[in-house]
């Protein structure tokens, strides 16, 4: 039964790779924009929740933020986790950390939706030279958004390596 589930998950994953998914270990030219996949939109847990697509604009904090807030390309199946109407109030780079202040619509996010939005911003911005982390705050939000920790790209788990190891072990047994 587990093998069938693994095969089904693999087939579903292959069908999602039609647009923009970046494979780890694959070298890409230029920056990429990170968005959520259809599986994240539908709360399906068998495929990656985040995927990227190429960015061809100016590789600056302002350029990447503007493109990310504009949403994914129309020809992809990706979606933005950032609420409509959200805008960047301001940003500042200090000591390798980009402090991004979003408008109050970002405060509507909670739970996994907030995590996905935070890491789309983090994975997008930490590609820039000199950017090691991202702190996101919200203009006019309460205490919960004011003292947020620094998010780093290496904090993101893009695959369940432990489960993959278990599946590889079962195949060899």
Any overview of this molecule?
The N terminus and C terminus are likely disordered. The chain has six helices and five strands; from the N terminus they run H-E-H-E-H-E-E-H-E-H-H. Strand 3 and strand 4 form a beta hairpin. Helix content is 35%, strand content 17%. Helix 3 packs across helix 4. By secondary structure, it is an alpha+beta fold.
CA-based gyration radius:
17 Å
Tally of DSSP helical segments: 6
What profile does the largest beta sheet have? 3 strands, mixed
What coarse outline follows from CA principal-axis ratios?
A: globular
Number of strands: 5
* SS-based class: alpha+beta
Strand arrangement across the biggest beta sheet: 3-4-5
Order of helices and strands: HEHEHEEHEHH
- Helical coverage, percent range: 25-40%
Topology:
Blueprint: H1 2-16, E1 32-36, H2 38-41, E2 50-54, H3 61-70, E3 88-94, E4 97-102, H4 111-125, E5 133-138, H5 143-146, H6 161-172
Parallel strand pairs: 4-5
Antiparallel strand pairs: 1-2, 3-4
Helix pairs in contact: 3-4
Which key terms come to mind for this protein?
173 residues; alpha+beta; 3-stranded mixed sheet; two-stranded antiparallel sheet; 6 helices; 5 strands; disordered C terminus
């Amino acid at each position: 039964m587990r093998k069938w589930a693994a095969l089904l998950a693999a087939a579903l994953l292959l069908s999602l790779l039609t647009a923009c998914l970046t494979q780890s270990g694959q070298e890409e030219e230029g920056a990429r924009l990170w968005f959520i996949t259809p599986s994240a939109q539908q709360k399906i847990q068998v495929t990656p929740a985040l995927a990227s697509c190429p960015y061809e604009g100016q590789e600056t904090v302002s350029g990447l933020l503007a493109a990310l807030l504009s949403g994914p390309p129309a020809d992809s199946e990706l979606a933005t986790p950032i609420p409509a109407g959200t805008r960047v109030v301001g940003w500042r780079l200090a000591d390798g950390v980009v402090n991004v202040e979003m408008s109050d619509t970002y405060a509507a996010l909670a739970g996994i939706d907030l995590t996905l939005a935070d890491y789309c911003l983090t994975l997008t911005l930490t590609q820039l030279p000199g950017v090691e982390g991202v702190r996101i705050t919200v203009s006019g939000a309460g205490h919960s958004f004011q003292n947020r920790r620094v998010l780093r790209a290496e904090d993101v788990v893009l695959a369940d390596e432990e489960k993959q190891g278990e599946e590889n072990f079962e195949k060899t047994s």
